[in-house]
Amino acid sequence: MSYTVTPIGYVRSCFKEKFAIPRQPLLAPAAQGCIELLPPYDQADAIAGLEDISHIWVIFLFHKTLEDTPRLKVRPPRLGGNKSIGVFASRATHRPNGIGQSAVRLERAEPGRLWISGIDLLDGTPVLDIKPYVPYADSLSMAHNAIADSAPTLITVSWQPNALQQAEQHAQRLQQPLIELIEQCLAQDPRPAYQQPTPERMYGVQFYDVQVRWRYLTLEQIEVIEVCLA
Ligand code: SAM
User: Fold this and answer.
1) Which domain holds residue 181?
2) Quick check: CB of 94 below 6 Å from ligand 1?
3) Is residue 100 within 6 Å of ligand 1 at its C-beta?
4) How many domains would you assign to the chain?
5) Ligand 1 pocket test: which of 10, 18, 60, 74 has the largest number of ligand atoms within 8 Å of its C-beta?
6) How confident is the prediction for the chain on average, in pLDDT?
7) How confident is the model over 1-58, as pLDDT tens digits?
8) 133/35 same-domain check
9) pTM, to two decimals
Protein backbone atom coordinates (compact mmCIF):
# COMPACT_ATOMS: atom_id res chain seq x y z
CA MET A 1 0.00 0.00 0.00
CA SER A 2 1.22 3.50 -0.64
CA TYR A 3 0.02 6.88 0.51
CA THR A 4 0.27 10.28 -1.10
CA VAL A 5 1.31 13.39 0.78
CA THR A 6 0.94 16.92 -0.51
CA PRO A 7 3.04 19.93 0.55
CA ILE A 8 1.23 22.50 2.64
CA GLY A 9 3.87 25.08 1.74
CA TYR A 10 7.47 25.74 0.74
CA VAL A 11 10.47 27.10 2.62
CA ARG A 12 12.11 30.34 1.46
CA SER A 13 15.55 30.15 2.99
CA CYS A 14 18.84 32.04 3.17
CA PHE A 15 20.43 28.72 2.09
CA LYS A 16 20.57 28.33 -1.70
CA GLU A 17 22.65 25.14 -1.76
CA LYS A 18 23.08 22.19 0.58
CA PHE A 19 26.75 22.83 1.36
CA ALA A 20 27.40 24.74 4.61
CA ILE A 21 23.86 24.42 5.94
CA PRO A 22 24.18 23.48 9.63
CA ARG A 23 23.58 19.78 10.22
CA GLN A 24 20.79 20.41 12.68
CA PRO A 25 18.46 23.33 13.45
CA LEU A 26 19.21 26.08 16.01
CA LEU A 27 23.00 25.75 15.52
CA ALA A 28 22.91 28.99 13.51
CA PRO A 29 20.29 31.28 15.11
CA ALA A 30 20.95 33.88 12.34
CA ALA A 31 19.73 31.45 9.66
CA GLN A 32 16.38 32.89 8.70
CA GLY A 33 13.60 32.01 6.35
CA CYS A 34 9.89 31.82 5.88
CA ILE A 35 7.34 29.12 5.18
CA GLU A 36 4.96 30.21 2.44
CA LEU A 37 1.71 28.37 3.10
CA LEU A 38 -0.46 27.12 0.23
CA PRO A 39 -4.27 27.29 0.07
CA PRO A 40 -6.26 26.46 2.12
CA TYR A 41 -3.58 26.73 4.87
CA ASP A 42 -2.78 30.32 3.92
CA GLN A 43 -5.84 31.52 5.86
CA ALA A 44 -5.83 33.07 9.34
CA ASP A 45 -7.73 30.06 10.77
CA ALA A 46 -4.77 27.72 10.14
CA ILE A 47 -2.35 29.74 12.29
CA ALA A 48 -4.71 30.80 15.11
CA GLY A 49 -2.88 30.15 18.41
CA LEU A 50 0.63 30.26 16.97
CA GLU A 51 1.11 33.68 18.59
CA ASP A 52 1.49 31.78 21.90
CA ILE A 53 4.17 29.41 20.61
CA SER A 54 7.92 30.09 20.38
CA HIS A 55 9.11 27.04 18.42
CA ILE A 56 7.58 24.74 15.84
CA TRP A 57 8.39 21.37 14.32
CA VAL A 58 8.69 21.59 10.56
CA ILE A 59 8.08 18.23 8.88
CA PHE A 60 9.48 18.37 5.38
CA LEU A 61 10.78 16.50 2.36
CA PHE A 62 14.50 16.23 1.62
CA HIS A 63 13.52 16.96 -1.97
CA LYS A 64 17.12 17.22 -3.23
CA THR A 65 18.21 13.82 -1.96
CA LEU A 66 15.20 11.62 -2.78
CA GLU A 67 16.27 8.17 -4.01
CA ASP A 68 14.54 5.10 -5.43
CA THR A 69 16.90 2.55 -3.89
CA PRO A 70 16.50 2.02 -0.13
CA ARG A 71 19.62 2.54 1.98
CA LEU A 72 19.90 0.47 5.14
CA LYS A 73 23.15 2.04 6.25
CA VAL A 74 24.38 5.61 5.94
CA ARG A 75 27.68 7.40 6.61
CA PRO A 76 26.86 10.43 8.76
CA PRO A 77 29.24 13.43 8.45
CA ARG A 78 29.26 13.46 12.24
CA LEU A 79 31.27 10.21 12.20
CA GLY A 80 33.74 11.60 9.66
CA GLY A 81 31.91 10.15 6.66
CA ASN A 82 33.85 6.87 6.82
CA LYS A 83 31.84 4.88 9.37
CA SER A 84 28.39 3.58 8.52
CA ILE A 85 25.46 3.09 10.88
CA GLY A 86 21.85 2.01 10.40
CA VAL A 87 19.63 4.57 8.72
CA PHE A 88 17.32 4.57 11.74
CA ALA A 89 20.22 5.52 14.04
CA SER A 90 20.97 8.59 11.94
CA ARG A 91 19.38 11.86 10.86
CA ALA A 92 21.00 11.60 7.43
CA THR A 93 19.11 13.08 4.48
CA HIS A 94 19.02 9.76 2.57
CA ARG A 95 16.16 7.90 4.20
CA PRO A 96 12.92 6.03 3.62
CA ASN A 97 10.34 8.44 2.27
CA GLY A 98 12.81 11.32 2.50
CA ILE A 99 11.13 12.89 5.52
CA GLY A 100 12.99 15.40 7.71
CA GLN A 101 12.02 17.18 10.92
CA SER A 102 13.43 20.36 12.39
CA ALA A 103 12.47 22.28 15.53
CA VAL A 104 12.93 25.96 14.66
CA ARG A 105 12.16 29.30 16.27
CA LEU A 106 8.90 30.89 15.15
CA GLU A 107 9.63 34.61 14.85
CA ARG A 108 6.30 35.77 13.50
CA ALA A 109 3.15 34.37 11.96
CA GLU A 110 0.85 36.06 9.49
CA PRO A 111 -1.77 34.46 7.25
CA GLY A 112 0.12 32.65 4.50
CA ARG A 113 3.59 33.18 6.03
CA LEU A 114 5.52 31.85 9.02
CA TRP A 115 8.84 33.60 9.67
CA ILE A 116 11.35 31.19 11.18
CA SER A 117 14.98 31.21 12.33
CA GLY A 118 17.66 28.72 13.31
CA ILE A 119 16.77 26.75 10.19
CA ASP A 120 18.73 23.91 8.55
CA LEU A 121 16.51 23.95 5.45
CA LEU A 122 17.31 24.52 1.81
CA ASP A 123 15.44 27.11 -0.22
CA GLY A 124 12.44 25.45 -1.92
CA THR A 125 12.06 22.66 0.65
CA PRO A 126 8.49 21.26 0.50
CA VAL A 127 6.79 21.38 3.92
CA LEU A 128 4.44 18.50 4.77
CA ASP A 129 3.22 19.61 8.18
CA ILE A 130 3.86 22.01 11.06
CA LYS A 131 3.36 21.18 14.72
CA PRO A 132 3.97 23.15 17.91
CA TYR A 133 7.07 22.30 19.92
CA VAL A 134 5.83 21.06 23.30
CA PRO A 135 8.61 21.50 25.89
CA TYR A 136 7.36 19.00 28.47
CA ALA A 137 7.05 16.23 25.88
CA ASP A 138 9.79 17.11 23.38
CA SER A 139 12.65 18.07 25.73
CA LEU A 140 13.83 14.86 27.38
CA SER A 141 16.36 15.50 30.12
CA MET A 142 17.05 11.75 30.61
CA ALA A 143 17.69 11.03 26.93
CA HIS A 144 21.12 10.07 25.63
CA ASN A 145 22.68 9.48 22.24
CA ALA A 146 26.28 8.33 22.32
CA ILE A 147 26.69 8.91 18.57
CA ALA A 148 25.74 12.59 18.75
CA ASP A 149 25.74 13.56 22.42
CA SER A 150 26.48 17.28 22.02
CA ALA A 151 26.60 20.01 19.41
CA PRO A 152 29.60 19.84 17.05
CA THR A 153 32.81 21.57 18.21
CA LEU A 154 33.10 25.04 16.70
CA ILE A 155 36.13 26.28 14.80
CA THR A 156 37.40 29.87 14.59
CA VAL A 157 36.23 32.22 11.82
CA SER A 158 38.32 35.29 10.99
CA TRP A 159 37.89 37.88 8.22
CA GLN A 160 40.10 39.58 5.69
CA PRO A 161 39.29 43.28 6.29
CA ASN A 162 37.82 43.86 2.79
CA ALA A 163 35.62 40.75 3.12
CA LEU A 164 34.18 42.05 6.38
CA GLN A 165 33.44 45.40 4.72
CA GLN A 166 31.74 43.65 1.81
CA ALA A 167 29.66 41.56 4.23
CA GLU A 168 28.60 44.67 6.16
CA GLN A 169 27.43 46.34 2.93
CA HIS A 170 25.45 43.28 1.81
CA ALA A 171 23.96 42.87 5.29
CA GLN A 172 22.71 46.45 5.11
CA ARG A 173 21.34 45.99 1.59
CA LEU A 174 19.60 42.72 2.51
CA GLN A 175 18.56 43.94 5.97
CA GLN A 176 19.68 40.56 7.31
CA PRO A 177 22.25 39.45 9.94
CA LEU A 178 24.64 38.26 7.22
CA ILE A 179 27.86 38.51 9.25
CA GLU A 180 26.43 36.42 12.08
CA LEU A 181 25.05 33.94 9.54
CA ILE A 182 28.45 33.50 7.87
CA GLU A 183 30.27 33.18 11.19
CA GLN A 184 27.75 30.74 12.68
CA CYS A 185 27.66 28.49 9.60
CA LEU A 186 31.39 28.43 8.88
CA ALA A 187 32.17 27.81 12.57
CA GLN A 188 30.38 24.46 12.11
CA ASP A 189 33.29 23.42 9.82
CA PRO A 190 31.23 22.60 6.73
CA ARG A 191 33.89 20.74 4.72
CA PRO A 192 33.52 16.96 4.33
CA ALA A 193 35.62 15.43 7.12
CA TYR A 194 37.66 13.32 4.67
CA GLN A 195 39.03 16.46 2.99
CA GLN A 196 42.35 17.77 4.28
CA PRO A 197 42.23 21.41 3.17
CA THR A 198 45.36 23.39 2.37
CA PRO A 199 45.43 27.22 2.70
CA GLU A 200 45.54 27.39 -1.13
CA ARG A 201 42.22 25.60 -1.53
CA MET A 202 39.20 27.93 -1.81
CA TYR A 203 35.72 27.01 -0.62
CA GLY A 204 32.53 28.85 -1.47
CA VAL A 205 28.79 28.87 -0.93
CA GLN A 206 25.81 31.08 -1.71
CA PHE A 207 23.79 32.61 1.15
CA TYR A 208 20.87 34.82 -0.02
CA ASP A 209 22.17 36.31 -3.28
CA VAL A 210 25.81 36.56 -2.20
CA GLN A 211 28.72 34.22 -2.76
CA VAL A 212 30.94 33.71 0.28
CA ARG A 213 34.52 32.47 -0.28
CA TRP A 214 36.86 31.23 2.41
CA ARG A 215 39.92 29.10 3.05
CA TYR A 216 41.24 27.05 5.95
CA LEU A 217 44.33 28.55 7.60
CA THR A 218 44.47 25.40 9.76
CA LEU A 219 41.95 22.63 10.43
CA GLU A 220 40.55 24.76 13.26
CA GLN A 221 40.61 28.17 11.57
CA ILE A 222 38.72 29.58 8.61
CA GLU A 223 39.46 32.92 6.96
CA VAL A 224 36.69 34.61 4.96
CA ILE A 225 38.23 35.99 1.76
CA GLU A 226 35.36 37.53 -0.20
CA VAL A 227 31.64 38.25 -0.01
CA CYS A 228 30.26 39.32 -3.40
CA LEU A 229 27.06 39.18 -5.44
CA ALA A 230 26.50 35.63 -6.74
N1 SAM B 1 16.87 18.44 11.23
C2 SAM B 1 16.55 17.59 10.10
C3 SAM B 1 16.33 16.16 10.52
O4 SAM B 1 16.95 15.74 11.51
O5 SAM B 1 15.54 15.46 9.91
C6 SAM B 1 17.60 17.66 9.03
C7 SAM B 1 18.93 17.09 9.38
S8 SAM B 1 19.90 16.91 7.95
C9 SAM B 1 21.33 16.09 8.59
C10 SAM B 1 20.43 18.56 7.67
C11 SAM B 1 21.01 18.73 6.30
O12 SAM B 1 20.01 18.49 5.34
C13 SAM B 1 21.49 20.13 6.02
O14 SAM B 1 22.83 20.28 6.43
C15 SAM B 1 21.33 20.26 4.51
O16 SAM B 1 22.54 20.01 3.84
C17 SAM B 1 20.34 19.17 4.14
N18 SAM B 1 19.08 19.66 3.59
C19 SAM B 1 18.31 20.66 4.06
N20 SAM B 1 17.20 20.79 3.31
C21 SAM B 1 17.27 19.84 2.34
C22 SAM B 1 16.42 19.45 1.26
N23 SAM B 1 15.28 20.07 1.03
N24 SAM B 1 16.82 18.41 0.47
C25 SAM B 1 17.98 17.76 0.72
N26 SAM B 1 18.83 18.08 1.71
C27 SAM B 1 18.48 19.10 2.52
Assistant:
1) 156-229
2) no
3) yes
4) 2
5) 18
6) 96
7) 999 999 999 999 999 999 999 999 999 999 999 999 999 999 999 999 999 999 999 9
8) yes
9) 0.96
Residue that terminates a domain, selected from 138, 169, 184: 138
Would the CB of 91 count as within 6 Å of ligand 1?
Answer: yes
Q: Does the residue 2 lie in any domain?
A: no
% pLDDT > 90, the chain: 89
- Cα(162) to ligand 1 centroid in Å equals 32
Per-residue confidence band for 194, with pLDDT thresholds at 50, 70 and 90: confident
7 lines ligand 1 (CB under 6 A): no
DSSP secondary structure string for all residues of the chain: -------SEEEEESB-SSTT--SSTTS-TT-EEEEEEPTTTTSHHHHTTGGG-SEEEEEEE-TTS--SS--SEE--GGGTTS--EEGGG---S--GGGEEEEEEEEEEEETTEEEEES----TTPEEEEEEE--HHHH--TT---SSS-SPPPP-EEEE-HHHHHHHHHHHHHHTS-HHHHHHHHHTT--S-TT----TT-EEEEEETTEEEEEEEEETTEEEEEEEEE-
